[in-house]
């Protein structure tokens, strides 16, 4: 920049072959002009001012050129402020305008405005020129990650591509932090390649596309490596106590979650759950339980079986208990009936014979008391076989009566 600024002045110096003049020109140039872009990073469709700085003294005339040389073919315009005169050059375009302080304004920037611009300024006795590079940036367009492999399996190759435009820089992140080492990025960082994916590559990937004026971070792309099934097993008790619940669980390492199928004694069942639950195990549940798992992505299946026994210590089944209880109750009831019947027979046939000598028409209760009294009064009765029986029956009867 500095070298360019001085070049014109040096040429002048060489032509004159005078050190003093040369120095004076040098020093004048040392105040040298510059061009500042306002804004610093011009954006497409907006405007920019190429503001000339460092001008000392009154500007006699100035010219702007498209390109990096002062060449009539490149001229945009030439301005003589004191005369209010503007001469458009071959590179003139209506979006270009000038200010009295020598600055150039370009409105409605388009990408093709990008390039070098040179200003030539004459103030008093001296001239100066400066070239500036105008960049016209476009905001980056949305960045989106796409993948070549929607359902990647272990050891496959996976490529993630960040689709975006106008980006000057693309950065990738995994789970919010910079990429772990060992991954391959293309020169422009647009593609991220896993030559052989593994489960450790699982994660959320994002790409951040940026340029000087904008930055867009993509939505995350979740990489999930499909694998398995592996480590299939059925967990649960191999020996279940009769009447207790029985729970078998089939599990395997697998992504995605596998489908489950169960067999009992090699017969396929409807059950498509990883759990097999039986509320109360009986001898019917003894046998082989087989679980088959299938991974829908890897198309791999695994199968395993276990043999479950149900404890033979079945308590007397409920039916036996009922029958036993019935027998016991039946016996008791039978005894009671026999006793009652005996007593009634006794009362019906034996008592009336004995009571024929006593009062008639007395109610059974009275008769009963009579018997009792008689018995108590005369324990040495003749009807010995009946004595004990009568005695106890009578107590039982009176208990019932009371
Ligand atoms: C020149 O004038 C323009 C318009 O008024 C202004 O934006 C710019 O800052 C000026 N440049 C300098 C160096 O003063
Ligand atoms: C601008 O000028 C510089 C130096 O003269 C040159 O290296 C560069 O290629 C030019 N750029 C354009 C876009 O013309
Ligand atoms: C590419 O990414 C690396 C870091 O992963 C970064 O240092 C570099 O600047 C990026 N290059 C481009 C062109 O985006
Ligand atoms: C299942 O098979 C086992 C072993 O062959 C057998 O003991 C059991 O009775 C069978 N169970 C049923 C319900 O068929």
Automatic annotation (TrEMBL):
KW Signal (keyword) present: yes
Residues annotated as domain Ig-like: 139-218, 229-307
Pfam families for this protein: Ig_2, Ig_3
Keyword match Transmembrane helix: yes
Highest taxon above the source species: Eukaryota
UniProt keywords, alphabetically: Glycoprotein, Membrane, Signal, Transmembrane, Transmembrane helix
Transmembrane segments: 320-346
Protein name as annotated: Ig-like domain-containing protein
Signal peptide: 1-32
Native source organism of the sequence: Xenopus laevis (African clawed frog)
């Amino acid at each position: 920049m500095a070298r360019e600024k001085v070049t014109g002045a040096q040429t002048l110096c060489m032509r004159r072959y005078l050190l003093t003049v040369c120095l004076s020109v040098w020093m004048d140039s040392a105040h040298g002009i510059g061009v500042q872009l306002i804004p610093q990073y011009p954006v497409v469709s907006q405007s920019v001012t190429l503001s000339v700085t460092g001008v000392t003294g009154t500007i006699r005339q100035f010219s702007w050129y498209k390109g990096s040389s002062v060449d009539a073919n490149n001229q945009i315009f030439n301005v003589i402020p004191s005369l209010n005169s503007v001469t458009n050059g071959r590179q003139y375009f209506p979006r270009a305008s000038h200010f009295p302080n020598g600055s150039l304004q370009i409105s409605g920037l388009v990408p093709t405005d990008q390039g070098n611009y040179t200003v030539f300024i004459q103030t008093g006795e001296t001239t100066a020129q400066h070239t500036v590079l105008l960049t016209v940036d476009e905001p980056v367009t949305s960045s989106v990650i796409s993948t070549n492999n929607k359902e990647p399996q272990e050891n496959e190759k996976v490529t993630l591509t960040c689709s975006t435009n106008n980006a000057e820089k693309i950065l990738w992140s995994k789970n919010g932090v910079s990429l772990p080492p060992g991954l391959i990025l293309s020169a422009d960082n647009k593609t991220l390649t896993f030559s052989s994916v593994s489960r450790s590559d699982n994660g959320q990937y994002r790409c951040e596309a940026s340029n000087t004026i904008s930055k867009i971070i993509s939505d995350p792309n979740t990489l999930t490596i499909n694998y398995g099934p592996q480590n299939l097993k059925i967990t649960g008790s191999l020996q279940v106590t009769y009447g207790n619940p029985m729970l078998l669980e089939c599990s395997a390492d697998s992504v995605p979650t596998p489908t489950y199928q169960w067999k009992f004694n090699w017969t396929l069942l409807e059950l498509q759950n990883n759990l097999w639950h039986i509320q109360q195990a009986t001898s019917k549940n003894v046998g082989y339980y087989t679980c088959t798992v299938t991974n829908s992505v890897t198309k791999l299946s695994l199968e395993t079986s276990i043999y479950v026994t149900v404890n033979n210590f079945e308590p007397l089944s409920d039916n036996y208990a009922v029958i036993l209880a019935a027998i016991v109750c039946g016996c008791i009831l039978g005894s009671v009936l026999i006793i009652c019947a005996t007593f009634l027979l006794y009362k019906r046939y034996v008592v009336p014979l004995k009571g024929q000598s006593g009062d008639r028409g007395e109610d059974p209760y009275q008769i009963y008391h009579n018997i009792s009294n008689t018995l108590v009064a005369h324990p040495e009765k003749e009807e010995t076989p009946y004595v004990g029986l009568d005695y106890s029956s009578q107590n039982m009867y009176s208990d019932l009566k009371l």
